[in-house]
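Model: You mentioned two targets. I'll fold them one after the other.
Researcher: Yes, keep them separate.
Model: Target one:
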Amino acid sequence: MITFIDEHRDRFGVEFICRVLGAAVRRFLTSRGYRAAKTRPASVRQLRDELLVPEIQRLHAENYGVYGVRKMHALLQREGWEIGRDQTARLMRLAGVQGITRRAKVYTTRSGRGQELPGDLVNRVFTAPAPRCLWVADITYVATWSGFAYVAFITDVFSRKIVGWSVAATLKAEVLPLQALEMAAWGADGDLAGVRHHSVHGSNYMSIVYSERVRELGAK
């Protein structure tokens, strides 16, 4: 109430604000109560808040603005402040800062329902006697400030080397996984004869454009 009056007193005046809001808001501060509060010495809690609020803002900024109540509480204790978790939450609200919440789960592949799926040529045995015998492909994602970046990659099981990769803002087969396949094929001079290509049964990999390209290159 005091903060609200302070912000608007130059425009409307203390008496007018207290009279109008006192009639509309139960137990709103009277003009006499406002003046008494302004002349009353600051309480210990108020003085402590005035010290901690800028400290919380500083620590929050130094930690990339991602700390929530739990981490901020632990950090303040490490900094030597005797403070409870509930008090930390209250002061973070006063400071106008909050943590980054967990994002919703992201699905990088969706099963290609209603279509015949290829057999498993690997049988969970991820070993290879030489390079270009077994390649495994998958998609992951990276959270950025502007959204999700999806990453498709192909790894040679023998060397554990990523032989093809692609980054895009979309999961479309012709944009993301196909570009990773083309990179891997380019590194193998365009001939994938004898290569077993293993991936999840996601619609990205089961799409016609992707599966036909695998066969065109000679892989199984």
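Model: Target two:
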Amino acid sequence: MEKKSKIDIMFDRMKEKKKEVRIVRRIVLVITLVLLIVVAIAGYQGYNYVTSALEPVDPDSEEVIEIEVPIGSNLDSISELLEENGIIEDARIYKYYVKFNNESEFQAGTYGLLPSMTLDEITESLKTGKVYREPLYTINFPEGLTLEQIAENVIAEKTDHTAEDFMAKVTDEAYIDELMASYPDLLTDEIKGENVRYALEGYLFPATYQFYEEDPSLELIIEQMLNATQANIAPYTSILEERGESPHWLLTFASLLEEEATAKADRATIASVFYNRMELDMPLQTDPTVIYAMGEHRERLFNEDYEFEHPYSTYINKGLPPGPIASAGASSIEAVLDPAETDYIYFLADSEGTNHFSVTYEEHLQKRDEYIGN
């Protein structure tokens, strides 16, 4: 057999390498084609899925599905609520759709929505707060009421429940424990403090509520009000954590402002007075705490009343009382965390309810003589 020359061997090697390159190229081409096909299929399926999710879930459906959008709900929670109830196909796609269209400011409330509604129709309903049935009850709970006043002036007058039934419910230890488990961030162990008169005092948010039952239960009323309190405090959670304070501290402080203020603008100024007094280690000396401690309504207090010894009296004790003395509104809550910057230490209200503020005690006495007299 004739021996191959070096050139022949090199030539054979070159042919083998070219053959290998052609095979590798074919493999790469096949893999690329497969990947392109997979991507195309995935893209087509994704397109179909998104297109389907943008359409009504069931165009022919006449079923009305009732959903409750709580106060303080954000877009994420609303989208998930709609998907869970079969109103939309996909919460994520609806969320992106809403953001892409720059929609916002959805309204809390009870809605009767249909799977046949378009995303635009759903969004418009949530924006306008339009509901598909009228509430059977609309109950207003004014700001500044104690639990006993809520029982007597609202529950007993505007529902089929008695004041006694309401007070029994809000003081039921077993029920309070259930609520604490349901609202762990709001209802902490502080509400069961040794000197706290009522655990839920100040925790039922004052507002106008709509009910869709002929006879709303006390539990429904109470828990709807707690939901509103939680929603109104939620924006300030990070501020409270930074300050090392709790919702109980916030609602207690806010309740003092609610009872002392005679105008919206006064709350921030009165808050500054209380902060200044605490900074100077002075008692807050706010009359509403004495009235609450005495457990009876008083138009005015006498000198001996200020000596009434009770944990809630801010004349006898320094700092805040053990708990709220009334239900505070949003403006009072905000004023606690954003007080005015003043040097005021004293204030008094004249016969028309206007508050007058002073830096020194001498100035305070002058204003007392001027606006109140002997």
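Researcher: Noted. Anything on target two?
Model: Strands lie at 65-69, 109-113, 137-140, 208-211, 346-349, 355-358.
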